[in-house]
């Protein structure tokens, strides 16, 4: 066991972990940040996506010990300072980009990474970027609308599927 220190959602944290502890377990089990969902443990579904130093990472395949000193943002860290929904979260609510909600944290985090790289993506770029996130409920159209709205673009002008 060793102490692994990192910054999570803007605050310094430290927890004793084994070398094989996954980042998803570190966040959920040791820090109590259960917004990061684990759906497959094989990096297929994308429900566990978090930002590590600003980049989208599937936390079910990253070892916490390898991220000593990293800056991690989870879906809990996407809220506004007053606790209200952040811009991306609000867009997902406003455009019904969720149904059961299981994939939503990973979708929100992937959207944050996309918009950091490309603030005004096209519909095609959004769809391509989110290919690593599986949603079994929505059919994706409203998720794409939510991402477009979060980017400040017209979400109503999307092509029909």
From TrEMBL:
Domain 2Fe-2S ferredoxin-type: 2-78
Keyword annotations of the record: 2Fe-2S, Iron, Iron-sulfur, Metal-binding, Oxidoreductase
PROSITE patterns: 2FE2S_FER_2 (PS51085)
InterPro entries, per database record: 2Fe-2S-bd, 2Fe-2S-bd_dom_sf, 2Fe-2S_ferredoxin-like_sf, 2Fe-2S_ferredoxin-type, Beta-grasp_dom_sf, Diverse_Oxidoreductases
This protein's record includes keyword Oxidoreductase: yes
MF annotations from Gene Ontology: 2 iron, 2 sulfur cluster binding; metal ion binding; oxidoreductase activity
SUPFAM superfamilies given in the database record: 2Fe-2S ferredoxin-like, CO dehydrogenase ISP C-domain like
PANTHER family: OXIDOREDUCTASE WITH IRON-SULFUR SUBUNIT (PTHR44379)
Protein's UniProt name: (2Fe-2S)-binding protein
Species, as recorded: Roseinatronobacter bogoriensis subsp. barguzinensis
